[in-house]
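dumping this here before i forget
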Amino acid sequence: MINLAAILLAFSLDVVLPPQETPPANPPISAEAPVVPHSQPQRVDKVHRIAPAQLGVALPMDTITVTLPIEKADLLDPKAKSGRLILFFRAVDSRTQGEPLDGPFFDDPQPIGSVGVDAIKPGTPISIAESSIWWPGGSELFEGAYEVQAVFDVNIDERGHLAPGNLFSKVATVELTRENAEVIALELTNIIPPQILPVLKNVEWIDLPSALLSKFAGRAVTHRAGVIFPAEYHNLKAKRRIWPTIYVVPGFGGRWTDAADLARKIGLAGVSLLWPQAVYVILDPESPLGHHGFVNSELNGPRGVALISELIPYLQDRFRLIQDPSARVLTGHSSGGWSSIWLAMNSPETFGAAFASSPDPLDFHAFQMNDLYRDENLFVGADGTERPSFREPIGPGHEFVPMLVREEVQMERAISPSGSSGEQWDAWAAMFSPVADLERKPRRLCNPTTGAIDPVTVEAWSRFDIARRISKDWNGWGKLFVERVRVIVGERDSFYLERAAIRLRDAIAEHQREQSAAGKDFPTGPGYIKIVPGATHDSVFPIAQFKFNAEICEYFRRAGHHD
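structure:
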């Protein structure tokens, strides 16, 4: 007998599946779609916020220095003398895990400071000057014991401070009190190495030069992907020789290298029986500015066009793949879920269906806890209440909010005041915003200090509002959605993403009712938006994966592409 619990655990990304949750039913979207009660308002047992009384340890600038030792000078690329020096702190008693440079931390935000460096000189200490940017404000930190690390971010071709080639220090521990600010002297003695791709018998790594993206960026840019082959792909006696394709878009922070983990999971004894027999292509949604979502944008370039016109034709020619849209499906979780839907809706001549779990906001009227079209401030509501960004349920009607929108945005600014941190809000800006100036920075959605929303930026973002596109094109985008898109979201999504999904689901149901009352037909289909009671952003993933696998198999069978 197959151990179902073990299989579900194997599907997850180290996420424990709550025992009371079962795969949801699968009715198509219809006028009778039940209304799932919104999980808000929940009782907030604790909101993390920086109160003035908690501050008071002001670090004099001359007590913080970072040095690249002369004997370590060869670690740095001679061409990479300038960059941004970032300090990450982590309280010793923090509930978060990892080293300081693993920040920013959502579950317990920790102090961050940074300063621009025009030309680093080995052996010459860099003092954290008055031009440095900090979160919280100034150079004030909490009292107590801290671990601290410095990162010198010089790699402009890869996302984030953990990109290969960046230098970092060992962890140092300091004790901060109101009476004494301990001297912090760090040395850049380590380098982040390039990632080594493992050699796996059922995986092939793709690194294809892109003419379109290289022209846009003014440097060499490649399409990267991990291709996973089904067990019978290399069997010359196999019944099937040409295969359907499943394109996987990793979530925020995920990369094409995720193919290694997925290939191992698919290869587990018994598990492979429940996965669609297809070629999996794990795409790379990363750009120097963060998750690009395969959106054609002013900052990231023609990512969608390049995928459709360069990478997919190359894969079709190189591997034995069925060259029909019905044999190509998309799937993804979180930011990858949104990207999967976006690609399926924009390129129906290329992809046949999309299966998305916990997608980024599908309706910008419910962009997490904000209404981008009506709110004046991203950080606080009209009553002055701080808006949460990340929550952790701790009971049926209770939840803990460790991070506010204000904190998330301002931590990103502390990493990179230019908007190139590669973190979530900066990545959305790079996807959706116009260029702000001649230095090609993304126009910010809000003032990072006050939270005031910029209506010009909102209008630019609205082009990527899937619900808005559907409401303006029911016979095009609306029809595609109900026929081709499946969405599963947890009722208590950690980033409040269920709010947008519920709005879109109810808008589609309302449109169907209006059409029916007017004696008109509106297409129905296998598409749906399902809300899983009690599930969070992570715990819904194995539930969705299990359900989607069965549905993709059935989808391919109906299209004649699966045995």
